[in-house]
Amino acid sequence: MSIWWVMIFAGLFTFLMRLSFILLIGRRDIPSLLSRTLRFIPPAVLSAIVFPELFLTNGEVNISIDNARLIAGVIAIVIAWKTKSVVWTILSGMISLWILQFLLR
Amino acid sequence: MIYGVLALAAGIPTGATQAMSAIVFAGSSQVVITQLVGQNTPGLVIVLTATVINLRHLLYSASVSPYLQKLSTSWKLLLAYLLTDEAYAVSIMHFQEESPLTASYDASIDVNLKEPADNQNLHWYLLGAGLALWSTWQLSTAAGILLGAIIPTSWSLDFTLALTFIALVVPYLKDKPSILTALVSGFTALLAINSPYKLGILVAALAGIIIGVISEGKR
Predict the structure, then answer these.
(1) Per the CB < 8 Å rule, is A43 touching B169?
(2) CB-CB: which of A17, A23, A40 is closest to B57?
(3) Which residues of A52-70 are buried (b: 16+ CB within 10 A; e: fewer)?
(4) Domain ranges in chain B?
(5) Does ipTM surpass 0.85 in this model?
(6) Which of B7, B55, B110, B175 could hold B17 in an S-S bridge, CB 3.0 to 4.6 Å?
């Protein structure tokens, strides 16, 4: 499947989900089990992407002082928790990574 | 902007990168699509993963729907397209202040309804917020594409993907069930990293969601 088809289908499904209750079911409430489940989707999916980015070096789990991305990531998590700011999280994480890469070289 | 830089680094053509901001128009799923494209993931899995991430829009849709019932279908189509995380967040607060819902019961279809106080102009607020965010998003994508073309790969800018997601996920971790969800999902993703068709992310997310719902149910 080309990138264009991926975009078109992903965009179409996203649009249909945004439209769903507005157009069809109207004023009915969303079922409670569904709404309870939906709340866990963002932390679940985002963590499933972040963990491998931090822990893996060339496809292998690397929990050592050499893993600059893991250390920079932990620093960024603390900054994200303290500041709630996307900009500060990215800045602190990138600067930590650059310093660590320089030190570990 | 980060999305533009990442998409270029993943080898997505400039035109497609910009078009995705208009077609999909949902930040976190665009970044995920970019990452999966960079890893040569099958298209079907990419669409599935992006759709799962955007399932939360069902909630937004249900939440704003009482306020938009009297609009024409074309208004509904337009506002649904513009219903992003940010547009939803600012609009629903405005809606609730301007026109609180009152519960009523419709015996003919046996459902509890929520009726907003009559207010003809609420939808203009969502339209304004949506259009402002749409323009900002398109312009910052273009800025990211320009930036991505200049910055060399030795700067490790691909790491901004993980950092963006860290910034997005941390605010969700407000209670034990959601922290548990994040940990279970993250470690399952590590275990499932070599799973076929890159389905690891979906499997891990599912495991995390199930744990979250169960642990919340126990309290």
Answers:
(1) yes
(2) A17
(3) bbbbbeeeeeeeeeebbbb
(4) 2-157, 173-219
(5) yes
(6) B7
| Six-digit token string for B54 | 């955007």
- Counting Cβ atoms within 10 Å, is residue B64 exposed (0-12), middle (13-18) or buried (19+)? buried
B positions 53-72 inside 8 Å of A (CB): 53-62, 64-66, 68-69
What pLDDT was estimated at residue A75? 97
CA atoms within 13 A on the CB side of B197: 11
Pinpoint the alpha helices (H) of chain A: 3-20, 32-38, 41-55, 68-83, 86-104
Q: Is this structure's pTM higher than 0.95?
A: no
Asked if B170 is an interface residue toward chain A (Cβ–Cβ < 8 A), one would say yes
Q: Which long-range contacts (CB under 8 A, 24 or more apart) does B90-97 make?
A: B90/B129, B91/B64, B91/B125, B91/B126, B91/B129, B92/B60, B92/B63, B92/B64, B94/B122, B94/B125, B95/B64, B95/B67, B95/B122, B95/B125
Condensed to tens digits (0 to 9), the pLDDT of residues B70-118 reads 889 999 999 999 999 889 988 888 888 877 776 655 555 555 556 666 6
